[in-house]
Amino acid sequence: MSVSDLFEPLGLLHGPAMKNRFMLAPLTNQQSEHDGSASDFDQDWIGQVAQGGYALIQTGAATVEAGGKAYERQLGIHSDEHLPGLTEMAASIREGGGLSAVQLHHAGHRARPELGGIPAPASSSTVPGIKALTTEQVERIRDSFIMAAKRAQQAGFDGVSLHGAFGWILSEFMSPLLNDRTDKYGGSTENRARLTIEVIEGIRRACGPRLQIGWRLSVERYGLLLEELRDITAEILDRELIDYLDLALWDSAQIVREGAFHGQTMLSVFTNLPRKGVRVGAAGNITSAQRAGRLLDEGCDFVLIGRAGILQRNFPQKVHDNPLHQSPALPVRAQYLRTGGLSERFINHMRGWQGFVQRFSV
């Protein structure tokens, strides 16, 4: 395939088709109001990327419960009070010609009490002094995801994406290291996947056939087992429970270092699965037009743009105009980001990403 194939449309199981193969990755940026309401900075950011040529734009991680907070100034979708700002964001994306999705998030055991978060571990041994969630509390959080999806639909978003990566609650429950439960949400692989599947199925029942459902999956750290996650993913794809799978890889070209898939690319472990009508994409160091195009050859249906989209909000348009486009080399000066339109809040967040912003730059 060539770079031009990135601009072919892509149908999804539910709702409208993507106009091309570019999806903006969910980028937490710590620029919302302290209560989770979308700020003017959020609206400005969404307005910029909405004009950048993306087929689908995801928001950053949005809390489905106030207690599930992981970051200062994290976007929220746990209250009807968040609806005005979310509605404006959805409208901005729609006006730019793209599809929209809210990433639904709960920090689980990683919730931060100093920010008002309430740690919600699957196991009593994970966070000192904090008991594991009861079955009823797990079911409450499940229902909070479903209610948040209904709010996203009410706000005019085309879909939602479940944050099942990086040890947050859905990922945590998948992990045999972090989940030693003995109820229906622990023990077997099937039981540890139950929360994720119940959330997906509940959203579909509550929101109907038009809402698009994505699932972000990571396979590293937090005790996650690649072989188990592949089996769970195979079931979800076979049952066509989601519209798209978002593989959150630190590097889309990384190699499996051990286990049954040693020597294979991490990407191929999942792209080789039968997927029926589900679309599969990957994020991870996609900073050039050529790399984005090669990912289609490697089995992806679409690509997720993260760092390159922060550097240049119109990355898809730049690829369209120049099939040899390459993102600026990292690190960059803060002034480069500022001139490009990033807020000081967003820039300060990016200072926490190793090697992104030059140290001591202004």
From TrEMBL:
Q: Which UniProt keywords apply?
A: Flavoprotein, Oxidoreductase
Residue stretches making up the NADH:flavin oxidoreductase/NADH oxidase N-terminal domain: 5-321
InterPro entries, alphabetically? Aldolase_TIM, NADH_flavin_oxidoreductase, OxRdtase_FMN_N
* Official protein name in the record: NADH:flavin oxidoreductase
Q: Which Pfam families match?
A: Oxidored_FMN
